[in-house]
Amino acid sequence: MKPRIPLLLGSLSAALVAFVLTSPGVVAADKVDPVADAKAFQNFFFQKFPNVKHEDFVNGPYSMNEDMKRQWQEKEEFPPYEFALDAGKEMFSTPFKNGKSYADCFPNGGIGIRQNYPYFDEKEGKVVTLELALNRCREANGEAPYSYVKDEMASLTAYMAYTSRGKLMDIKIPDDPRALAAFENGKRYFYTRRGQMNFSCASCHVQSPGERIRAEILAPALGILNAMPIYRSEWSGMGTTSRRFVTCNSQTRAVPLEPQADEYRDVEYFLSYVANGLPISGPGARP
Amino acid sequence: MRKILTPFSRVHSPDCQGRPFVLWNAPISAIEIIAITPRNDALTALVRTPVLFILLAIAAGLASPARAQSAVTEGQKLAFDRGKGNCLTCHVIKGGDLPGTIGPELKDIKSKYPDRNELVAIIFDETKRNPQTMMPPFGRNRILTEQEISAIVDFLQTL
User: Per-domain residue ranges for chain B?
Assistant: First the structure.
């Protein structure tokens, strides 16, 4: 075909074709198989990066580049997220005005449980993330919810991740069609191209991990949430999972969703489930 | 088509219009972004897109092929500009700083693509050649105008 022809006719169907082609969800909607999906997902990365130790995938861009990894390991002696960790611990142990505390809202007093989030709540029929559960805890105890993209939330999740370091991601999908639908919806969101740049999450984190996008090295999608929340020098501060999703959407000129919108909860469910068996490494530090 | 589209229009927003440009890698406040960006209706965007592009494409076809030397300079500026082509995000290009590695180095372009229309087509919408490509459809999604693409092609031909 001559390039001129698609140029003239191109736009007529291009958008439709593009997203039909790049949306596996359309074809496979009736047979959701998370176990097979997770296996295929992990194998893809293990085969693409045979020299990366499986448990290292949870270190984002550092798993992809030896030089960077060395610099990071030096930095870990004085980790930049330390202040957030201290603040989070303090916040976590300070009672609410009603005398209760975060520990009352979570299994095991909230310690060492990060690997079980997000979970599917069968009463609500939706995915509940750790950030959401924390704000619900606050509201149930008469406190105002925190912003999902700011320091307080990052500090709390940093502390909860820290008490869970090394525990293996352990996300369950109950035998409930709504849970399967949430998983499938998250998967579809992840692979669907959107925005002016026409990227899907997978364009960057499945097709191109380890490549440089300008000066940044792209993290692999496998284990991409295990290190959350993260300190980023570019942000000169901490960022929650919500903040990272919103930022990835807006920096590629896609319309970000509200933090904790259903689709974001579902994509977190999908990404966490396919990382089952990989250790929690948060909080993380990034260049 | 409608049937397939409907469930997607919630999650998929090809929001080509009405968005202030967000420069890649620019520090942005998440809060601000959320406040100023109502979600677009995907269906409206898809329906409106084709007509405009066919018009644009025809207009470009009629334009004169002769280009001033200054177009090369202009093309380089557009290719390097983070708010425009931002080609350095993915390509090593002579004279540009901090290139990415997602695409191939852009060099010896004239020998590889002697026909400038081929280059126009790649920049306009590379998903035509390669549906899986990461390269954004600069023309189709109106990131660059026909004139801007043409200037960038002039620049590419000097590489």
Answer: 67-157
CA closest to A262 among chain B residues? B11
Which of A13, A147, A212 lies at the smallest CB-CB distance from B101? A212
**Secondary structure (3-state) at A276:** coil
Closest residue, chain B, to A193 (C-alpha):
B12
Query: How far is CA B4 from its chain centroid?
Result: 27
Among candidate residues A287, A269, A236, the one with its CA nearest the CA of residue A130:
A269
| Alpha carbon of residue B72 to chain centroid | 18
Residues near A111 by beta carbon (within 8 Å), at least 6 away in sequence:
A103, A160, A163, A164
Dist. CA A102–CA A96, nearest whole Å: 8
Q: What pLDDT digit, counting tens, does each position of A177-204 carry?
A: 999 999 999 999 999 999 999 999 999 9
Q: Which of A7, A250, A259 sits opposite B57 (nearest CB)?
A: A7
* Residue in A2, A8, A243 nearest the CB of B57: A8
pLDDT in tens, B33-52: 322 233 333 333 333 455 55
Q: How far is B13 from chain A (nearest CA, A)?
A: 6
Q: What is the ipTM of this complex?
A: 0.85
**Two structure tokens written together for A94:** 């300070």
How many CB atoms neighbour CB A117 within 10 A?
28
DSSP-H helix ranges across chain A:
4-21, 24-28, 34-48, 66-75, 82-93, 130-140, 151-162, 177-191, 201-205, 241-251, 262-273
pTM: 0.81
Q: Which residues in chain A touch residue B52, judged by CB atoms under 8 angstroms apart?
A: 11
Could you tell me the two tokens for A26? 């359309």
Q: What is the DSSP letter of A1?
A: -
Q: Calculate the alpha carbon distances from B78 to A131, B64, B90, B148 in Å.
A: 41, 20, 15, 7
Q: Which residue's structure tokens are 């695409």?
A: B103
Nearest to A49 by CA among A69, A33, A63, A31: A63
Distance of alpha carbon A222 from alpha carbon A227, whole angstroms = 11
The CATH class, in words, for B67-157 is mainly alpha
pLDDT tens per residue, range A58-70 = 999 998 988 888 8
Kindly list the residues from chain A whose CB atom is less than 8 angstroms away from the CB atom of residue B134.
199, 203-204, 207-208
Q: Name the residue with tokens 């890698």.
A: B25
